[in-house]
Design a protein that fits this description.
The complex is a heterodimer of chains A (about 775) and B (about 350). By secondary structure, chain A is of the alpha+beta class. Chain A contains 20 helices and 35 strands. In chain A, strand 29 and strand 30 form a beta hairpin. In chain A, helix 5 crosses helix 6 and helix 19 crosses helix 20. The chains are: A alpha+beta (about 775), B alpha+beta (about 350). Chains A and B meet through helix 2, helix 7, helix 10, helix 13 and helix 14 of A and helix 5, strand 1, strand 2, strand 4 and strand 5 of B. The complex binds zinc ion. The site of zinc ion has 8 residues of chain B, from loops.
């Protein structure tokens, strides 16, 4: 939203703050400014000039013109405009002398676009006399971030912003509206509102003998300065009142209306309307329309229809000034994908009091923009009862408690009154505040809202930071946070770098990793078709990381800690935190899988890998489940060689489960007082027998006196038979009560050997 | 004469000890001279035949010879040990300029790092760190935060809606609500996490980013307290003194609401391209918790008040390191991530 400094000044007597300073003050106290644009720079020294003589210039479309500028005398200028002819009164701008096509040109004759008055750059501007330029002065346009005034319907017009400026600068505010200009008597157009919730108020007046013409220059300039395009006197008038009072208006050609009643009603299903933007809209009953006897003439609060639009021939005009339900306008505007200056304002919940204020301005300004026009009949005004102005109790102490600084009762009163609030004292340090209609639609209803009004005006920079009292308790902390940190530290220490991946996967990627897309939670409005599912596993995207990074690195380690999201029949999906780590190496080998297993064991001492049926994306002979404390906590595997060149080992852990299984307290066992004994055993077994199984068997035969059994090595090759291997273990035996005799140790050893032989294993001892 | 034999033996053995070329040779000489069946032992045996006074004299001589030879042996042996050790040490020469094997530490994601810093700061100030789901209900993400039904934030162009009617949280603020539901005031909490906006991705826009949310509820929490925590937070994050300013900003879940700006570090407030000539850089949104939000969570706004703030971690990382493309953060590109 753009605000003209000159325009604001018309409502604030004696405003003497510079535009740059004002921009900062508005930012600090009202809404965020995004910069200042200087417009109409030439208007400072421009003056009316009459073309007295014109001479052609050889081989040029330009002419040499002599103009009479009045106070500055006669000037010679080179001009290229097609309308530069004797007798034309235009605008002269002294720019200094320069030579153009061998002729000294002293200044220039300007187009409307060059002056900033309108967008016409095809010709020099034609005016009546010096007085035409009276209200056209260089201006500063302050741009306000629309997002910062979404909650302030009143700030979508200059008068509302002027009220803020007056309060900021402690100057008086001048209200331009003269309600006594509104005509009395029967209204010439009947208004029928079907639902006052959707249209709380609809006001209209009618003019006859209107002459459609360009607006006066000051009005064109004012609209151009804030980025609106001047069109004709009637359209410009409605736009200017919208930019002044935040009240959108619409003008209909009365002669094109069918019947003498205007209806405000829901659209009929399939009803169509050709709008002013040359688009045809097919409407639904959820869209509110303005209609005559023949059908829709406007989409309420959004755009008017072409059939009843103002044209150059129009002489009778109906001015509409209405109030519509904010959410309804917003929904319709979204549904038909059309945002207009009107819909943007109505979406903010405009003040129903404002409709007739807008019409009063129409009456006043019509005298200037269409002097011969006459009012027909009285004001048409259908409405439900306007809501009573809300009152809020506010104590001085409440303000101090919330702001953290005291503000005196007189200052609070002064601030609120300057912003248009009614203030009544209700005992010592207590106020009853009446909310003005333009702040009551949705902006202000609580005493805390008033704290903001006071706070921003005294200035938040006047509040001194203050430390609160120290707590007398230690707040509880989340175990999983500490555990995730530990896991992160462990994996980074072992060379893994943390990545973050998106929570989205595509149907194809899910299928590639063996998931049914329908098992996923689905995004209803995905940003791209390949980001429509919420991931049920971190593995697919880690796979993506591997294929990308292998373009740059021969070997690398990476990991992610993130959430799997699993659909549940009711309520929110289940979110499970997983850790997926990977070691990639271009070289052949299996070492990385064991490195990864080691990393897993660091996190979960004693975790075991149990070979399991491989999934489609896993190497069929290199895949295992990770078991820890009796639970399956994850998987370790190599990616199937079809999926990646080189070797990629992956570990996928359910961190929530691992955290749950972690021992909460550490336990201490006294050191053994009697020495233990050790001996080694080698079991000859089939080449694919699992070392862990052999270990379990040996362990079972060893009995209660076994302290520990440790894998030493395995060997295959001569002198062993083909397809066999020897797996060696070191056993430690002992007793907490005594030193075992060599006979006892020998007996344990013999029992194991005999037992294993019984199972068909040879032992090398 | 036995004394002559001893002297001869002594001289002979000394010469041979000196001449021994290897440790083995030396040992052989030692056994021959000093062993149980060695020459000195033989002589000792023969001394029994001597007269007592002669025997005493010869015994002295023999002991002296034995001691002398033992010392000579030891000395010579030490020489051998020393040269053997020297040879071994020399053979063990290593080229220490070779690279050490094994992986180097990896690194944490820069967002994780900054998140940990801020968590630690707030924990030291007595705050809890809370966590909430990434898939949220409309109630927790909007309703309970005083965001009305028809608020633009709920539109499909801002929110990822799920087919089950839930949504991907658009901010970490729902964790405030969950915090208030779970713990009663007084309450100090922060909630870091991943949030989502339905936005097309380019160098400066992401649909997935990280925020940290903070809230404190107590009797008489004021703007002055909010300012204190924000100043502390930003001083620690930027590791330097900061000038702040609060200005009005609208968020439905706070009242009054603020935008908090930090004075531009580049120009010191004079105005430059980074701060768009304003001298200030917008840093975070904050405010006093809207009484409706407190009431919705069953907290009496007449008794309690609070502040809340939300800080973009992703943006902070980009500012701290001068990262020019937001997409790098979720790219998994190790060329980028290994730098942190
Ligand atoms: Zn700067």
């Amino acid at each position: 939203m753009k605000f003209s400094y000159n325009w604001l000044r018309e409502y604030v007597d004696g405003l003497d703050i510079s535009p740059a300073k004002l921009e900062t003050l508005i930012t600090m106290k009202t809404a965020e400014c995004e910069g200042i644009e200087e417009v109409g720079a030439y208007l400072g020294e421009a003056c009316a000039a009459r073309v007295e003589a014109v001479e052609p210039i050889a081989n040029s479309h330009n002419v040499k013109a002599r103009v009479e500028t009045g106070p500055s005398g006669a000037k010679t200028v080179v001009c290229g405009a097609p309308n530069c002819r004797v007798g034309v009164v235009t605008v002269y701008v002294p720019l200094g002398r320069k030579v153009i096509q061998g002729i000294e040109s002293d200044g220039m004759l300007a187009s409307g676009a060059e002056l900033g008055i309108n967008r016409d750059d095809s010709a020099i501007i034609e005016i009546q006399n010096q007085a035409s330029l009276d209200r056209c002065k260089p201006d500063s346009v302050i741009e306000i971030d629309n997002k910062s005034i979404n909650h302030r319907p009143d700030l979508w017009g200059h008068f509302g912003m002027a009220r803020e400026v007056a309060a900021i600068s402690r100057q008086n505010l001048r209200d331009p509206v003269k309600l006594d200009l509104l005509p009395a008597g029967p209204a010439p157009v009947k208004i029928e509102i079907a639902d006052f919730d959707l249209c709380p108020r609809f006001s209209a007046i009618v003019f006859e003998n209107v002459k459609i013409a360009p607006s006066p220059l000051w009005l064109q300039y004012r609209l151009s300065a804030i980025g609106l395009n001047p069109i004709n006197n009637i359209v410009d008038l409605t736009n200017s009142i919208m930019a002044e009072l935040a009240q959108p208006m619409h003008a209909y050609d009365r002669d094109k209306l069918t019947g003498s009643t205007i209806f405000v009603r829901a659209a009929k299903a399939g009803e169509r309307m050709m709008a002013l933007n040359d688009e045809e809209y097919t409407l639904k009953p959820s869209n509110l329309v303005i209609a005559d006897a023949a059908g829709p003439i406007g989409i309420a609060g959004v755009i008017g229809g072409q059939g009843t639009a103002i044209s150059d021939q129009t002489t009778n005009v109906v001015f509409e000034s209405a109030n519509f339900h904010a959410a309804s306008v917003r929904r319709t505007s979204m549904a038909i994908k059309l945002r207009t200056d009107a819909s943007m304002r109505f979406e903010k919940a405009q003040d129903p009091v404002n409709t007739v204020r807008g019409l009063a301005r129409v009456v006043e300004l019509m005298r200037e923009v269409s002097p011969g026009a006459r009012l027909v009949g009285g004001l048409g005004d259908q409405k439900r009862d306007l809501p009573a102005l809300p009152q809020v109790e506010l104590s001085v102490d409440w303000v101090a408690r919330k702001l953290g600084r005291a503000v005196g009762v007189a200052e609070i009163r002064d601030i609120l009154e300057s912003l248009g609030f009614g203030v009544r004292e209700n005992g010592p340090k207590a106020l009853v505040v009446t909310i003005p209609s333009w702040r009551a639609t949705k902006d202000i209803s609580l005493k805390d809202d008033l704290v903001e009004e006071v706070g921003r005006m005294v200035g938040y920079d006047s509040i001194v930071p203050q430390a609160p009292a120290v707590l007398d308790t230690v707040p509880p902390q989340d175990d999983s946070r500490a555990f995730h940190r530990e896991a992160r530290a462990m994996f980074t220490a072992q060379g893994f770098t943390e990545v973050h991946n998106y929570s989205f996967v595509s149907d194809d990627l899910a299928r590639k990793f063996g998931f049914d897309p329908d098992d996923h939670v689905r995004v209803a409005n995905p940003i791209a078709s390949d980001q429509n599912l919420l991931r049920m596993s971190l593995v697919p995207e880690i796979y993506g990381n591997i294929t990308e990074n292998r373009k740059h690195f021969e070997r690398f380690r990476l990991f992610e800690i993130g959430r799997e999201i699993h659909k549940r029949p009711h309520g929110l999906p289940l979110e499970v935190t997983h850790l997926v780590a990977s070691i990639y190496s271009k070289e052949e080998g299996s070492a990385d899988l064991f490195e990864l297993k080691r990393a897993a064991e660091c996190l979960m001492p004693g975790a075991e890998a149990c070979p399991t049926a491989a999934r489609a994306y896993e190497h069929p002979a290199r895949s295992a489940e990770i078991l820890w404390r009796g639970e399956r906590v994850g998987r370790i595997f190599e990616l199937h060689p079809n999926l990646v060149d080189g070797r990629a080992a992956l570990l996928d852990l359910d961190l929530d489960l691992v955290q749950k299984l972690r021992p909460r307290v550490k336990t201490y066992t006294p050191l053994r007082r009697y020495p233990s004994s050790q001996f080694d055993l080698s079991v000859i077994a089939g080449i694919r027998e699992l070392a862990a199984d052999l270990r379990t068997k040996v362990k079972d035969f060893a009995g209660d006196l076994l302290e520990s059994i440790e894998y030493l090595r395995q060997y295959s090759g001569p002198p062993l038979q083909e397809n066999t291997k020897s797996v060696s273990f070191r056993l430690t035996v002992g007793s907490p009560e005594r030193t075992l005799s060599s006979d006892e140790v020998g007996a344990i050893r013999a029992r194991i050997i005999e037992g294993m032989r019984g199972l068909g294993y040879e032992l090398r001892v | 004469m036995i004394q002559d034999d001893i002297r001869t033996l002594e001289a002979d053995a000394c010469a041979r000890i000196g001449a021994a070329a290897t440790l083995e040779q030396l040992e052989a000489i030692r056994v021959e001279a000093l062993g149980r069946k060695g020459v000195l032992a033989q002589i000792s045996k023969e001394m029994g035949k001597l007269a007592p006074e002669e025997r005493a004299q010869a015994g002295k001589l023999l002991n002296a010879a034995k001691q002398l030879l033992e010392e000579a042996f030891e000395r010579r042996k030490r020489e051998f040990d020393e040269s053997r050790l020297a040879a071994r040490l020399d053979a063990e020469w290593l080229d220490l300029t070779l690279p050490a094997p094994g992986p180097r530490p990896g690194s944490l994601h820069p967002i994780t790092q900054i998140q940990m810093e801020i968590e630690d700061l707030f924990v030291s100030l007595g705050f809890m760190v809370l966590d909430g789901p990434e898939v949220e209900t409309e109630y927790h993400n909007f309703d309970a935060l005083n965001i009305p039904r028809d608020h633009p934030a709920r539109d499909a162009q801002d929110t990822f809606w799920l087919t089950d009617g839930n949504l991907l949280r658009t901010h970490t603020s729902p964790v405030q609500v969950r915090g208030m539901e779970r713990f009663r005031p007084p309450l100090r909490m922060i909630a870091p996490g991943r949030v989502f906006r339905n936005e097309s991705v380019d160098a400066s826009h992401e649909h997935t980013f990280y925020q940290i949310e903070g809230m404190m509820i107590d009797h008489d929490v004021s703007v002055a307290h909010l300012l204190y925590f924000m100043k502390t937070l930003l001083r620690e994050v930027f590791r330097r003194d900061v000038s702040l300013r609060l200005r009005p900003g609208f968020f439905p879940f706070v009242e009054p609401g603020f935008e908090l700006d930090v004075q531009c570090f580049i120009c010191g407030g004079a105005g430059c391209p980074v701060c768009k000539q304003s001298g200030w850089v917008e840093q975070l949104g904050c405010g006093l918790v809207n009484p409706n939000v407190l009431r919705t969570s069953g907290i009496d706004p007449e008794q309690w008040s609070g502040f809340a703030f939300g800080l973009g971690l992703t943006r902070l990382v980009m500012m701290r390191y001068g990262v020019e493309d937001i997409r790098l953060l979720q790219s998994g590109d190790l060329r980028f991530l290994r730098q942190f």
